[in-house]
Records
---
Amino acid sequence: MQSLPSRSVAVVLGTRPELVKLTDLVRLLGPAAHLVHTGQHYDEELSGRFLTELGLPEPTFLTGVGGQPRAVQISAALAQLDELFTAEPPLAVVVQGDTNAALSGALAANARGIPLLHVEAGLRSHDRNMPEEHNRVLIDRIADVLCAATEDNRANLLAEGIDDTRIAVTGNTVVEAVHGQLPDAAGRTALLGRHGLAEDAYVLATVHRPENTDSPEALRAILTELAALATADRPVVLPLHPRTRARIEAAGLTDLLAPLTVSAPLGYGEFLALARHSALLVSDSGGIQEECTVLGRPLVVVRRSTERPEAMADFADLVSPGAGIGDAARRRLAEGADGLARLAALPSPFGDGLASERIVSLLTAVTAPQRIAAAA
């Protein structure tokens, strides 16, 4: 973007969902964006593939963060970010969501007095057992510009005493991410063919959250319910994250995978294509709660709590690991073609696909005093 100098906006991220949700913003910023990857999630098969697929510029990578406990991740990233921001001070820092990477970027910006913009501000699960809940609350307290995806998110911030002048309702960047990365109809048909799947005749599932994968009981309950949903005419497709696979093996649950159609992790566009034509999604992902509303597909959310109640009104059902998964899934599947058509006709509660453009305008405004001072 011409009004912002080269590498003047540090975009700090560390996970694949952040890469996806910030892609359009980074593209709109152009040379002004300095992508900083903490390495919270990094391996060539997953994050490396996402960087290439999304067409993002090569980031500055931090070291010693991935695979560490939460406190070590935050402290290691914070130390390196402070050094980076000292050597190359940005005009603003952007973080997204509620990851350890986002909190590290927020604290580093705050420590150096750099304007901080929080994308997806105001999400609240009110579940203090979630590390992400603590991260997002802390980031919102210190952010200078809070980009709330929905009016409900804005209301959460106001209820916590945050000044309305710091809040902007932008919509969620996931809407443009889905529109931008979903393959066209011919591409989707080809992908379904390669996977041996028929449109609207399979269930697509993902499991990755520690509350599910680190509990052998929860993992057993989820896999048991998914296996019970699988039939000859309606397979259950499970792209398996390496960490989840390791937890399944460690818990001695590998036999439960036999009825499922297990695949390697999917690229983002490929996952969206399969999600778009699934009869049902079952997942513990936060992002999929948003994506299902853009794709018009039903979702069973397997978690204790959710910070995205907007999706629950029409598109999703929240259940804990156990028999509730199968009950909710069968209710949704019983709605058949009429249920899918009803959801496809509903607008997403997460906005109109212009969130990234609004955020760039906010960045231009928040950095204006520094740019004017530098030009004087």
---
Amino acid sequence: MEKRKRRRLFRDGIIVVISVLVAWALAESPFIDRFIFSLDGFYILNSFVVGLFFTSAFTTAPAIVFIAKLAHIYPPYVLALVGGLGALVGDFIIFNFIKGHISEDVSYLFSKAKSKRIKHLFEFRFVRWSMAFLGALIIASPFPDELGLTLMGLSKISPMRFALISYTFNTIGIFVIASIARAV
């Protein structure tokens, strides 16, 4: 089990590195501009899809490149509002996938813990609220959402609050990236 987890972490790390390299190659190539102009008039669809890809560790870097390019064509608030919906859908997909694995991984980590104090921490409402808040900040950042979603899952947040937090913070994150890209 230990070996399998290390292998999975290594594989995921390699995929993230490849994702960053692909994003760099996309930023340097004319492909994005041609692709965006081929979908001219479909800015709602472009914004939604880029938001959908903004959520995963494997697609965040290329999505940020697309957001930066789209920000020069579309108003940042439109890109953010519609992209936030796409990111919400992506987060729900990831959250439902992660949700089943969270308890297994947390149980594994707790079994390795030397102290019962760590287990006891999760009983406090403030700790659970803090994890949800930290998870929301991670979702707003350009970092992949999986860690933030895991923290929110551990906090036992309701699906309605999760949706509200995910949409709000992803929208803010996309808006900030688009605004910076447009200003540069």
---
Amino acid sequence: MLKKSAYMIFGKIDYINLLPFHIYLKKSTLTNALKKSCEYKKSFPSHINSQFKKRRVDGAFISSIESNKKYIKTLPLGIVAKKHVTSVLVKKNTKSTKDPHSATSNVLAKVLGINGEVTIGDKALKLYLENPEDYIDLAKQWNTRYNLPFVFAILCVNNHFKTYKKLSDNFKNNRIKIPQYILKKYAHERKIPPKEILKYLSLISYEIGVKERRGLNLFLKKSRVFK
């Protein structure tokens, strides 16, 4: 086991769906010393899962399928699709293939019995906006079938639990406004119009309450057969 670091190393998934949280971290009213100690390791979900498991990051949004371990400490904050999400897709009339950047979404397709090429993240959002009729929205299918939101990831902690809890609580109690310059930057980098980014973010929530927990537990129960 690695020694507990004096620095808070946060595993950053640089997708649009976590943009409000990343903005909050930058603007946090916590001490300057703490803000300076927050270091980011940017990567995609499946790699961040591995980094967290190896304790190379102190906290991260971990794929829900990987968060259900007795030794993992979690907080009631995650990436939640209220109904549809437009960034977790299966392409119609294609051979079933996994997205190597995903963990949860690949299993979700199996749980729902939907075959085809799985694509997630900002790439998926762009594809959906270009040709929505070519794709199946997995979160929408889940909600239609079970009338529950779908939890894609949960904030998990290895070290500095109290600090992450404070960050989590404060984030839930703040309305995050995305500065125009950051919105334009993401729009340029991801080739997605600003208005579509804002529309997409309106489909996502972050607090894991009773209904979200029910949806998560149902998914974890149904996923056992595919492990």
